[in-house]
Write a structure and sequence with these properties.
- The chain is mainly alpha-helical.
- Helix content is about 80%, strand content about 0%.
- It has a single domain, classed as Hydantoin permease (Orthogonal Bundle).
- The longest helix is centred in the middle third of the chain and has 36 residues.
- It starts with a helix and ends with a helix.
Length: about 425
């Protein structure tokens, strides 16, 4: 197995730069995959919790928040890809190169804490799915989750493309599961369209939930990861080739983030159609959703599909979290540890939570609060670096792109600050 994710991706057999006479699909395929891995982080168990509560409490009213959060994600992940392609270095490496040493060490520590908090939510989500689907104890589910994710990570020895296929297949399976549940739930099209297009907040708590949706959507660890996946994936020799490569990567982001957006919209719409429309406005946990889907939809298949999608989301996002941790460590401090050791270290907090008997839902919320601290640390340098012509060359951001990035960062920081203040109070 390759020692680092970067080396694995760099030496993958994607071939030479595709020629112009080949079809668009054949030229695009070598660039397809990084965004599918990044998209997994946008459908982790934290998203399940926020989307379900928003749909059950307010119906379709906050669908627009999910839509705009996903558009922000597309912008942010595009900037991450652009940085890796233009500089040949990922975001963590750029910070190590450009920032003072004490600041770099601070960045590394906070990034590791954020990665642990993120993986905690993903790990607990998968363990909860094993508990709901198969009756395993949370500890048994956690140990099985660790074993499965390690086995998937070990597939890197056969090439990073195989791991992309595995994770991408999980993402597509989650999307298919929610599409099937939406068909069974039969949401009302008129209020759903209104909720998608008309921004509104029914009350103050809706603002809090909107902040939670946004906080669960933008994941700092995949900003670091995505920039590493594009930094040496396909060799480019000229400015024209870099421009062309960026066009293909942009399509990759649109597809990957688009699938994640459909899943998140489906989660909220399903909760609105099944819970809100039947008067169950107090559903706020993943376990409640699983228990209530079958009797309310009169189909046991609905609960099973929900449990399977939760399991696949937890497993796949846990894999991606471990990969991101490797990139963070290598980028900031220049060394890595074996995958099995990182997997063991990231399992430890989840095992501790289970053994202490702490409530999973509260831990999920707390992990999202910790996660919100890390978002500005990734976004601000990303926007700063991609706006510098001497670093980016012909891939430098246009001014309106930088302006949009600053607006998105400002909104995310303000809303996450609101979440932090609300939780602390």
């Amino acid at each position: 197995m390759s020692d680092t994710l970067v080396d694995s991706a760099a030496h993958e057999g994607a071939g030479t730069y595709p020629g112009r006479r080949r079809s668009f699909v054949s030229r695009f395929l070598p660039f397809f995959g990084p965004a599918m891995i990044a998209a997994v982080a946008y459908i982790d168990p934290g998203n399940f919790a926020t989307n379900i509560e928003a749909g059950s409490r307010y119906g379709y009213t906050l669908l627009w928040v999910v839509l705009w959060a996903n558009l922000m994600a597309m912008l942010i992940q595009t900037l991450s890809v652009r940085l890796g392609l233009a500089t040949g270095r990922n975001l963590a490496e750029m910070i190590r190169e450009r920032y003072p040493r004490p600041v770099v060490w601070f960045y590394w520590v906070q990034a590791e804490l954020v990665a642990i908090a993120t993986d905690l939510a993903e790990f607990l989500g998968a363990a909860l799915a094993f508990n709901l689907l198969f009756g395993l104890t949370m500890l048994e589910g956690a140990l099985l989750t660790g074993a499965i994710t390690y086995a998937a990570l070990a597939m890197q020895r056969y090439g990073f493309r195989l791991l992309e296929v595995i994770i991408g297949s999980m993402l597509m399976a989650v999307a298919a599961g929610f599409v099937a549940q939406i068909v069974m739930g039969r949401p009302d099209a008129a209020p759903a369209l209104e909720g998608l297009l008309l921004p509104q907040f029914p009350d103050g708590y809706a603002v809090f939930l909107a902040a939670g949706i946004l906080g669960a959507t933008v994941m700092p660890h995949v900003i670091y990861l995505h920039s590493s996946l594009s930094q040496r994936r396909i060799p480019t020799r000229t400015d024209a080739e870099r421009k062309r490569a960026m066009r293909y990567y942009r399509w990759d982001v649109i597809i990957g983030m688009g699938i994640a957006g459909i899943i998140n919209l489906s989660m909220l719409a399903l909760a609105a159609a099944v819970f809100f429309d039947s008067g169950r406005t107090g559903v706020a946990s993943i376990e409640q959703s699983y228990r209530l889907l079958a009797p309310l939809m009169d189909r046991g298949l609905a609960s099973t599909l929900f449990g399977i999608t939760l399991l696949l989301a937890g497993l796949s996002s846990s894999i991606v979290g471990t990969l991101a941790g490797q990139v963070v460590m290598q980028g900031f401090v220049g060394f890595t540890i074996p995958i099995w050791l990182r997997r063991l270290l990231t399992m430890a907090p989840a095992i501790a939570v289970i053994m202490l008997g702490l409530p999973e839902q509260q831990v999920l919320v707390a992990s999202q609060v910790v996660l919100s601290f890390g978002i500005p640390f990734a976004l601000i340098p990303l926007i700063q670096f991609t706006a510098k012509h001497q670093l980016m060359g012909n891939l430098v951001n246009r001014r309106w792109v930088t302006a949009l990035g600053c607006v998105a960062a400002g909104i995310i920081i303000l809303l996450n600050g609101y979440v932090l203040a609300f939780e602390l109070l």
